[in-house]
Amino acid sequence: MNRLLRAAAAPRRAFRTGGHTVATVAVLYLLALPIAVWIRQDGLQTGATDFASELELALWLLAALVAAVAAAAVQRVSVDAAAGGAIRYANITSGHRTRSFEPAEVQSMSLHRAKDGRLRLTSTLELRLAPAAHRRWTTATLFDGDMSGDGRAEPLASIIRQVVEARPDVALDTNLRALLAARRFGAAFGTARVGQEGKRD
After folding, report:
1. How much is the pTM?
2. Is 35 exposed, middle or buried (0-12, 13-18, 19+ CB in 10 A)?
3. Is the per-residue pLDDT at 141 higher than 90?
4. Predicted pLDDT of residue 118
């Protein structure tokens, strides 16, 4: 029975992002750990504590740092392969609870690029949804898969394509308009119009 249900279900594309960010932070911390312990032991607090205590404290700090970075960076996204299929995501903006919406529900999209500053490590895609009785939220925020990327990487590329194919008249900001004109994801992108969100960038 389970095999029949899986076979009948629409295929999905699944993405997990943020793992490289967490690993990078952990590696950089571990590389700096011996230097920091040596400075504290030999230069600042000589004789105050032993090396084992310093190392234990540093490892606890590492665990707390990795946990905080993971909570902020890790994201799960799945996109149904069928045209107009549902988009599901879970990240820090949703409290890591899975949210789902249909591409046809999206009224506008805005791309906030990391290279534009504003203390962003990665680009974010903001989708404004039409109000619906089955949910209380109307904004979905998703992160680019590449650190300091410009929205060309997954999962944003698949989400943008899915939404524009379902809603050719979706409102786009200037960043998305420029990105889609350069990438030419599909003929449907040529019919999308620039939304009011572009005035804020």
Report:
1. 0.68
2. exposed
3. yes
4. 64
